[in-house]
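It would be a great kindness if you could assist me with a short task in structural biology. The matter concerns a single protein, recorded as an amino acid sequence and a row of backbone structure tokens. Could you please explain, in whatever detail you think fit, how the structure tokens follow from the sequence? Thank you for your consideration; the sequence and its tokens are set out here:
___
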Amino acid sequence: KQWYQRRVRVKSRELQNLLHLESAVIQTVQYAQSTLEEMSRDSEINTQKIKTDAQLFMKSVQHINEKLLQTISYLGEVSTAVPHSGSVYNSEKDFQLAHEQCRLVLDRLDKLNEKSKPRDFVCDTVETQISTMES
């Protein structure tokens, strides 16, 4: 139960990170839009606003880049079964392999059990000989 709750928390945290990234992308587009709108004015261009919005745009792009790299790294760790906190992938795979090995052992034991059962060989000629001796 605890590993499931931990797994849900990790998934929830990763989803929250992606939602924050989405918000950051939206904000970045707004910075770019504001910068371009100011630059496209016919008169009274506010260069300070352009500089400020352009700097905010660049910082936001760097932040998004860092967060995306972290997310990609995390997903890479999860998909390649590299152990990390919050992952039960290795444990699940170990359990599946152990379960498969147990099934193979049980199948082999069943085959050996079938081979070791006593066989009833009834030979007509032997039965006939025994019955004639008794008579």
About this structure: The chain has a mean pLDDT of 77. The helical segments are 2-39, 47-79, 89-116, 124-134. DSSP finds four helices and no strands in the chain.
